[in-house]
Predict the structure.
Amino acid sequence: MGWPEERINRAFKLARAQKLDALLFFSPEFVRYLSGFRGEGILVFGLERGFLVSDGRYLTQAREEAPEFDFRLSQSWLSGTAEVIKNQGFEKVGFEAEGIPYIGFQRLRELSPGWELFPLGDELKTLRMIKEPGEIERIRRAIEIAEKAFLEIRPRIRSGGRERDIALEFEYAARRLGSETLPFDPIVASGPRSALPHAIPSARLLSDGELVLMDFGARAEGYASDQTRTTWLGEGKGEREEDRIYQTVRAAQEEAIAAVRPGVAAKTVDRAARSRIAAAGWGEFLRHSTGHGVGLSVHEAPAISEDSEVILEEGMVFTIEPGVYIPELGGVRIEDMVLVTEEGVEVLTSV
Ligand code: ZN
Ligand code: ZN
C-alpha cells in the first residue's frame, strides 16, 4: 500500500495538541490500516519513517506486505519498540490506548526512561471514519458475500431448523464464498430468544408462528459487513402483535435512513428512529443505539447514538439498526448498512 502519508499526517494532526514526535499502534486493525501488514506487531511512526516491530514468524510476510517500513526483529515486541524509540531520539510518544492491555502499558512505561507516553483514545476513533473508494469497494464485496450466503441458507430458516445449525451453515457458506474469518459469530434467535439483542444460537428448534432474527456479516480484505433480517415463520402474518412491531421498526429504519446526508448530526439520525418507536409506545424496548460505523472493525466510529457528537460527512459507512425487544414475546431488528454520499445516502445492503 506504500507509505501512508495522508493517513499518518491525519493521525499526527489529531495528536498535534500534544506536540508528539512519534505514534505507536498495536491493534491489528490500525497496523493493517497504516501499513498494509496483516500479521501481528507494533507500528512505530515518526513523521517521515515507520518501523514495524515483530518476531521471526512474520519476517517474510512483513517484507511483502509492508516494504516501506523498517522491520525490526524482536522476541519481545515492547523491548524492540523501546529500542526504536531510543535510537530515533523520540521524546513525546503517543500510543493507541485501546490497543494495549494495562500490563503491557506498565511494561512499556518501565522501558521508557528518557521519553514520555501520551494515551490517544477518542482522537484516533475518527481516523478511520471516512472511507476511501478502495475501502468502500471492499465493504461492498463483504456485503455481496454475506448476502449470497444468506440467500443460500435462507431455505433452512423454517420450522424444524435448529438455531445453531443455521448459524453454522451460514458461516460455512460465507467462508466458501470467499469471506475471511467472519467479523462476528452469526446470531440466529427464534421465538422469545429473539428478544435478546445479542443472543447466542442455541439448540432450539424453529417453529411456525414465531419470529426468527438473524444477524450476519462477512469479511473481504479486512473489511466487514453487518446486517440483520427478522422474519415470521408460517401463517398468521399481519394479525399479530409481532407484525405491528415489525412495521414500526421498519418505518423507524426508513425515517432514520431518510435523515442521512452530509452535515446532519448523527444524533438526529438516532432520534428519527427512536421517536418513531417511542410514538408507537415501545420506547422502553429499544435498548441500543441506532447504528455504528463499520470498516476494519465491525464496530467503529461514527456512533449513531443519542450522545454522538459526530456530524455526518461524505464517505462514512455505518449501520442503521433499530430494534424492539419485548421479553418473552420476541424481538425485531432490521439492520442495513449505508454510505453517506455527496447528495445524501446510498443503502449498501439489499437482500
Ligand atoms: Zn449486526
Ligand atoms: Zn450492527
